[in-house]
């Protein structure tokens, strides 16, 4: 005797506009705070944020404006891959992150910040920020969209493209930063990626 078919799970409901706004606000603000932790300790991370931090640490330019300029060429890839709604939400999240990153130094300061603590805390904070943005169909733009486009066009896996970018970024960091700061930065990037890998499941929460 065959067993009865498993019941069909109810379709997840979509987030409301207010829920999307709260998620994007949380993600943008927490991403800025994570970048501040890293920048205050002289650290970087992977992807486009890491490049912006590397440039910011080596110059007098703030992280926010540098990230905004670097992100501009990537919006076309995001639009082509995920559409206008995703692009608009991403631009809003990036602008919020940039504005917050410019305001935070006037509101918060660190008398003592160990680079190891900054790396781990930034990994947790930035990971939670990205999870919130992903859950609300948003991102902070950057290399991911390009990696997906390269995968579609040339058959090179997106993960390999991102890993290649990060490898080049950290190689440049070894030439510009003390080696121990680069290693602490790698720890922070590993924590961030672990948070995303463990907690990001598109089939386990509402969209």
Automatic annotation (TrEMBL):
Main location: membrane
GO CC terms, sorted: plasma membrane
Keywords from the named record: Cell membrane, Membrane, Transmembrane, Transmembrane helix
Membrane topology: Multi-pass membrane protein
Annotated TM spans: 24-55, 61-79, 86-104, 116-134, 154-176, 182-199
Pfam families (UniProt xref): YitT_membrane (PF02588)
Domain of life: Bacteria
InterPro entries xref list: UPF0750_membrane, YitT
Subcellular localization(s) per the UniProt record: Cell membrane
Protein name per the record: YitT family protein
């Amino acid at each position: 005797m065959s067993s009865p078919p498993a019941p069909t799970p109810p379709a997840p409901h979509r987030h409301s506009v207010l829920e999307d706004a709260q998620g994007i606000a949380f993600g943008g603000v927490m991403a800025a705070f994570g970048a501040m932790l890293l920048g205050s300790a002289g650290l970087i991370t992977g992807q486009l944020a890491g490049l912006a931090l590397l440039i910011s640490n080596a110059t007098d330019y703030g992280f926010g404006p540098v990230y905004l300029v670097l992100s501009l060429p990537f919006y076309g890839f995001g639009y082509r891959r995920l559409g206008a709604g995703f692009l608009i939400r991403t631009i809003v999240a990036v602008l919020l992150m940039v504005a917050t990153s410019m305001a935070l130094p006037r509101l918060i300061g660190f008398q003592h910040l160990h680079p190891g603590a900054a790396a781990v805390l930034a990994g947790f904070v930035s990971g939670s920020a990205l999870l919130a943005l992903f859950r609300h169909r948003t991102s902070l733009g950057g290399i991911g969209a390009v990696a997906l486009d390269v995968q579609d066009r040339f058959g090179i896996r997106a993960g390999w493209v991102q890993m290649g970018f990060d490898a080049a970024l950290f190689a440049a960091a070894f030439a510009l930063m003390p080696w121990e700061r680069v290693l602490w930065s790698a720890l922070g990037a590993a924590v961030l990626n672990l948070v995303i890998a463990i907690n990001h499941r598109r089939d386990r929460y509402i969209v």
